[in-house]
Amino acid sequence: MKTIHHPAESRGHADHGWLKSSHTFSFANYHDPERIHFGALRVLNDDHVAAGKGFGTHPHDNMEIVSIPLEGDLEHKDSMGNVTVIKQGDVQAMSAGTGIFHSEYNKNSDQDVKFLQIWVFPNERNIEPRYSQITLDEDKLNNQLAQIVAPNGTEGGVNIQQDAWFHLGRLDKGTELNYELKKSGNGVYAFILDGEVTIAGRTLNERDGLGVWETNNISISADSDARVLLMEVPMSV
After folding, report:
1. Which pLDDT does position 237 carry in this prediction?
2. φ and ψ at residue 141, rounded to 5 degrees
3. Average pLDDT in the chain
4. Which has fewest Cβ within 10 Å: 66, 147, 169, 228?
5. What angle do CA 147, 162, 202 make, to 5 degrees?
6. Beta bridge partners of 83
């Protein structure tokens, strides 16, 4: 088993006034040659968008984009004709493929939106763009790992064009779990949303990240009440 630890305070940071963002991996003006990606996981941005503000229409291509709102409401519009609002408890995925344009705005005038923006390299380029969105069953998060992202055509979560599986859990203190990897050669990047958790023998706190690979299973122990996101991705891209 190999691991790499990214403490929360080691992330890159950007403050644009209306947008405050923390970057686990190199993004925009933050560049660290040692932190370009973890396998197929390319971007993990922890974004805070001010009330009424947002990202104007902009393009993407050949990238799998997953958005997970943590607080507030985010309004989405895209060139595929989708107009929707995603909120805490929702998960959204776009396969940009041959190219899409989209915008994201904080729909509320009285509170920030907090969400995770995650990019994953696809396993096939230039596919027809796709969009999917789900609302999670909150009960399935309690002291277990609920699947929220899966490969295209797989049941359980939004679909992306990659052999990747994301799981989300809300764990009570003392909960112990074991995660079995879905595919040989994959690794898992764990991101702690809040609380304290020990994963693969490493104690992690809020917004810490831990990459684990060259193993078939990973131990998880909640040292306090906590929320954990696991992102299993191929290690070769």
Report:
1. 85
2. -90, -15
3. 96
4. 147
5. 55
6. 77
Q: Which domain does 227 fall in, by range?
A: 2-234
pLDDT digits 0-9 by tens, 60-104: 999 999 999 999 999 999 999 999 999 999 999 999 999 999 999
Q: Are strands 83-87 and 146-151 parallel, antiparallel or unpaired?
A: unpaired
Predicted confidence band of residue 223 (pLDDT cuts 50, 70, 90): very high
Q: What is the CATH number of the domain that holds 215?
A: 2.60.120.10
156: left (phi over 0), alpha (psi -120 to 50) or beta: left
pTM for the whole structure: 0.97
CA 73 – CA 200 distance, rounded (Å)? 34
Tens of pLDDT, residue by residue over 25-63, are: 999 999 999 999 999 999 999 999 999 999 999 999 999
What HEC string does the chain produce? Answer: CEEEEECHHHCEEEECCCEEEEECCCECCECCCCCCCECCEEEEEEEEECCCCEEEEEEECCCEEEEEEEECEEEEEECCCCEEEEECCEEEEEECCCCEEEEEEECCCCCCEEEEEEEECCCCCCCCCEEEEEECCHHHHECCCEEEEEECCCCCCEEECCCCEEEEEEECCCCEEEEECCCCCEEEEEEEEECCEEECCEEECCCCEEEEECCCEEEEEECCCEEEEEEEEECCC
Instruction: Point out which residues pair with 208 in neighbouring strands.
Output: none
- What are 48's strand-pairing partners? 20, 114
